[in-house]
Structure formats: structure tokens, C-alpha cells
Amino acid sequence: MAMVLQITTFLQQWLESRPSVKEGPKSSDPVRFGILSTAMINPAGLIHPVETHPNAVIKAIASRDVRNAQKAAKTYKIEKAYGSYEELLADPEIDAVYISLPNGMHAEWAKKALSAGKHALIEKPVSSNGDEAASIFDAAKENNKVAVEAFHWRYHPAAHVVKSLVDSGRYGRVLSTCARMTTPAGSIPKSDIRWQWDLAGGSLMDMTYTVSATRYILGAETPVNVEFAKARPLKGDGRVDEAMEARLQFETDGGLVQSDIKTDMSQSFAGRLVPRVWELPSIRIELEHATIYYYNFMMPHIYHYIQVTDKQTGQTHTQKHYSFGPSWGPRSEPWWSTYRYQLEAFVDKVTGKEPAHWISPEDSIAQMRTLDAIYVKSGLGKRPSTASAAKSG
């Protein structure tokens, strides 16, 4: 059952990320990418988006098993396959790397890539903890290279519309938020790296989107207080959270806001029979004069809706946005995935242009500091850094 659900999820991600238009001509001087790992996220996260970007190509992919790299290279028509990450980083024809390794390996290989003169697009979460995040961006600054956390959802026009509705002042100040993300029990095999403590696994780490969405909507950094954090430990390894619930308090321009977070990588079936596949990532924002509900904020290019309910009239208005928006304007296409929008911004940044949207180093560091605070409050402690995890393993 676990494998069936896992494959179904992958196929949906793969199919929905494929562009609906044919690959166009490339520029004479594109940004040349290398990919570190043969992770399942690669097609959606970079390979398909690159197909329709005129100024990006993928030149190489690396795995610790060269056979895996060769298989992926053949499947996706990538020129070079390497049997080690070091070989790819030593390739002078690579300008930037996409790091889709397990969480616990992000900081180590991001810093190695930056030191090798490569820009780095780093899968979320950017690191295992706040200290590691800070070290990544210190390395980026020292080497004058771009490093960014791949929170793809943040680049989609729908997210910018929700943010603009909240910031408009039309509905008064924010009173509270509630963000949740769940996966049906059995959809993630117990052998999956997301359950491994030494690789910074756990539901809050994998479903960090909930904290990202909360902080983005509020324009907040770290919470002033974690009122409570309750983890449901994984059977067999109590250091890993199978689920996490937390209540945070953020200081905003409009005052103190209470924010609830829920993540669950093994959500029980409805009636013990039906997987709750309809429970896509969502955030509810309570304001003085309205309630805003953003459904499927993680993958809005597949499907989403934004509901605004006026508390005075009781009327609900529903809207959807696949292009334009307050950030992108006409420079967007309705068939672009969140990853395609992200690639557009990354290539702009690397080539010296001003991206329509960007996630700052300070933002990513604050994101990881927030996760640290939740883990500490829960009693599990923050996720280990690469070196300490290796010594404990």
C-alpha cells in the first residue's frame, strides 16, 4: 500500500510538472546546471522547468552510484553522468547546482558547491538547523555566489495575491492563522530517508511549508514565543516526529498573532478506510473583517483556490490565479509550475537581473531558527548538524 501511494504521488508530480508546450531554442550562453543526486523530485524540481527556459540547460547529474547517474542521464538526455558529487563540482562547464540530496546533506554540499564556484539552488529545508543555514549563506557571500532555498510555492502568483489581500488593510489586521499539511498513513515507506534522524528527517522538516506559509503571509521572522509544541514520535525512533502540532506567537505591525501549525506524515484514514488525499496543504487566515482560506498553496499550479469570506456580509468570493499577479505581471504563463516560476527567478538572479520574487538569506535562516524553536519546545531537540549526526550514527 505504501509503495502504491508513493508511486501515485510521484506520477502526479511528474506529469503535472511537464510543460504543455514543446521545448524552445536555447540562448548561446545559458546557465549550465548540474544536479547532485538522482532524487525523485528532480524531474518536477528542475528537469522539466529547464525544458522551456531559453537560458538554462542541464549538463550533468551525479550519484554515488554511477549506474544510477547514467540511468537518469539516459532517461532525461543529460550529457554527463558522474559517480561522485566531487566530480560534478570539479566540472568547469557547470555554473550552478541543484541540490536535491537528503536534508542532512544540504549544508555540506551547498558549501562545497559554493566553494567550487557554483551557484546553489538548495531543496527545502535549506539545512538541518539554523546554524547550518547561516553557514551556507556565509559561504555564498564569501564566494560571491547565489544560494537560495527552493521554496518553489513562494514564486507562484496565487501566493502573491493572498499576500497582497492580507497586506491591503481592507480586511483589518491579522488575528490568527492555521496552516496544515498531511500525508495519508502508509504513503511514505518506513525505509524512506524522511524518517531518518541523522538525515534531519521528520514531519516538521519535510512539511516545513506550513511554517514557510505562515511566516510569508505575516511578513514575520522568528516567533516571539512557542506556546506549545507536541510531537507524535515515530515508533522505533522517538527522536523523529511522525507528526507535529505547535502554536506560535508572532509580532507583526498589527500586533501579536497566534499561529497554529500541524504536520502529519502518517495521517489516519477517514473512517479507517479512506486515505485523506483531499487534505492538501492549506492556510486559514483570520482577519478582523474577513477569513481568507488558501487551498493547496504548495502545488497551486495543479489546482488551488483562494476563498475570501466577508465577516460583515457573510459573502464568500472564490478566486484562482495561475499567471500575472502583483509580482510577475505579464511575464508569466498559466501553464508554468511553481518550479518553473522559481527557475525564472533563479536564472534572473544568477545572470544579474532583478527577479520578480526572491527568498533572502535572512528569511531562510529565520525559517530554520523557527523550526529549531519548535523542535526544542517539543522536547525532541533541534535536528543535528551533519558532523554531529555522523558521530552519533
Automatic annotation (TrEMBL):
Any one GO molecular-function label of the UniProt entry: D-xylose 1-dehydrogenase (NADP+) activity
Keywords, ordered alphabetically: Oxidoreductase
InterPro entries: Gfo/Idh/MocA-like_OxRdtase_N (IPR000683), Gfo/Idh/MocA_domain (IPR050984), GFO_IDH_MocA-like_dom (IPR055170), NAD(P)-bd_dom_sf (IPR036291)
Domain GFO/IDH/MocA-like oxidoreductase residue range list: 162-257
The UniProt record lists the keyword tRNA-binding: no
EC number: 1.1.1.179
Oxidoreductase found in the keyword field: yes
Source domain of life: Eukaryota
Catalytically driven reaction(s): D-xylose + NADP(+) = D-xylono-1,5-lactone + NADPH + H(+)
Domain Gfo/Idh/MocA-like oxidoreductase N-terminal stretches: 48-148
Entry similarity comment: Belongs to the Gfo/Idh/MocA family.
Name of the protein this chain belongs to: D-xylose 1-dehydrogenase (NADP(+), D-xylono-1,5-lactone-forming)
Organism: Fusarium oxysporum f. sp. raphani
